[in-house]
Design brief:
about 300 residues; alpha+beta; six-stranded antiparallel sheet; 7 helices; about 20% strand
């Protein structure tokens, strides 16, 4: 019989410093992928993915080669592999964002990968340029491993949830802008022009991302302004009746300010069956989204 792993406890106050450092490091790696990958709709080409040891870019085409960058939170290393080149690695340890940036690009140069990235983070305030950031520097290996383990559990449930939809649907992927794991379903209909509003995010990127009607769910690790890891679910554009729908489980709630349903990670983690509770949240909020927005479900869902 397969042994099921427990969902880890996330103590945000104890993990905040590590989370903020990782967020900066992951943005640097994400921006390298942004500059080297061919464009995909809704910025899917920039995302990272959860894997068996941490987060990965997957293979990135580069000239006549392929390279890949992985965060390994079991060995606590950043691993860089490239066709025909010796593997490079960086020990993940307490160090500033500026030092991480310098060491990473030294490793890339050593295997003849030349990339220029935009120097400031996205969706973060203040947006200190990476080369100048000596504020974020703490790295607790236990905290880093715990945060990844939580993403690993969520990734499994999200993947199961994704399987029932046969319309256009994103992969389950990690967006480094807000540091959230997400999967997005599409109705196939054009959406109204999005008004933007996310800090340090180009308006045209936001408008292309929301150029079609979507129902999206995700897992966000929290921030200093909202120190509560949560699962979320929203629809764009949303009918005013969306937030009035009853959803599961009973711990879920709707935020009129954000226009989204939320379920606290700690409620899932403490549940007798965390996977079941999370799946009920994903499925019931999706039902609320498509029924209020009148999607053609017969064309989009597996019978």
């Amino acid at each position: 019989m397969k042994q099921r792993l427990n969902w880890p406890v996330i103590d945000f106050a104890k993990m905040q410093d590590t989370l903020e450092t990782l967020h900066q490091w992951i943005q640097i790696v994400g921006k390298i992928k942004l500059r080297t990958m061919p464009w995909q709709n809704h910025s899917w080409h920039v995302a990272l993915y959860v894997n068996a040891h941490g987060y990965t870019t997957h293979g990135i085409p580069y000239m006549d080669r392929v390279f890949q960058i992985d965060f390994d939170f079991e060995q606590h290393k950043l691993l860089i592999e490239c066709t025909g080149k010796e593997k490079q690695s960086i020990d993940l340890r307490p160090m500033t964002v500026a030092d991480f940036y310098s060491e990473l690009f030294d490793k890339l140069n050593a295997i003849d990968i030349k990339v220029d990235i935009h120097q400031s983070p996205n969706e973060i305030e203040p947006a200190i340029p990476f080369k100048q950031n000596r504020v974020n520097k703490l790295y607790d290996p236990i905290a880093a491993n715990t945060l990844w383990q939580a993403m690993l559990r969520a990734n499994s449930v999200f993947s199961k949830f994704r399987s029932g939809f046969i319309g256009k649907c994103s992969p389950v992927h990690l967006f480094w802008g807000a540091f959230d794991l997400a999967v997005t379903r599409f109705s196939g209909n054009i959406a109204p022009l999005h008004q933007g509003g996310i800090p340090n995010m180009p308006l045209d990127v936001m408008q292309e991302a929301y150029s079609q009607e979507v129902s999206s769910v995700g897992f966000w690790l929290g921030s200093k302004d909202f120190p509560v890891p949560v699962f979320y679910s929203y629809v764009y554009p949303a009918d005013e009746s969306f937030g009035k729908r009853e959803v599961m489980p009973q711990e879920a709630f709707y935020s009129p300010e954000m226009g989204e349903f939320f379920l606290k990670y700690e409620d899932v983690q403490r549940a007798e069956n965390p996977d079941k509770m999370l799946y009920e949240f994903l499925e019931s909020t999706y039902q609320a989204a498509v029924n209020t927005s009148e999607w053609d479900r017969g064309r989009l869902e597996r019978r």
